[in-house]
Write a structure and sequence with these properties.
By secondary structure, the chain is of the alpha+beta class. The chain is built from 1 helix and 6 strands, in the order αββββββ.
């Protein structure tokens, strides 16, 4: 009885490992893994500036928003933490109809 259980365990281990061993992993070569596109610069006052563009899918009519993350070592608390801000944001606001705006 013990030999049958041992044989069953060995055969099931071999059969379950066979599909895993026969598959080759797919590694795409389009982009490097762990690589973030960004630009580092230093201002005249000595502040380190780092910008990271965010890749977003196209929206309605193919419009792609250009949003990014930026860091400035001399800025205070931003929207994303100390020194970090979100760039590319804009807003359209309605104003009351006045003689100045007409």
């Amino acid at each position: 009885m013990g030999k049958k259980i041992t044989l069953f365990i060995i055969l099931s281990a071999l059969l379950s490992a066979t599909p895993v061993l026969s598959q080759e992993p797919f590694i795409g070569s389009a982009t490097e893994v762990g690589f973030t596109e960004g630009a580092l610069s230093v201002s005249l006052s000595g502040a380190a500036n780092y910008t990271i563009p965010l890749q977003l899918p196209p929206g309605i009519n193919g419009v792609v928003p250009k949003i990014g993350i930026s860091y400035n070592s001399q800025s205070g608390v931003g929207m994303l933490g100390y020194g970090w801000n979100l760039t590319g944001l804009s807003a359209i606001a309605r104003v009351p109809s006045t003689k100045f705006h007409d």
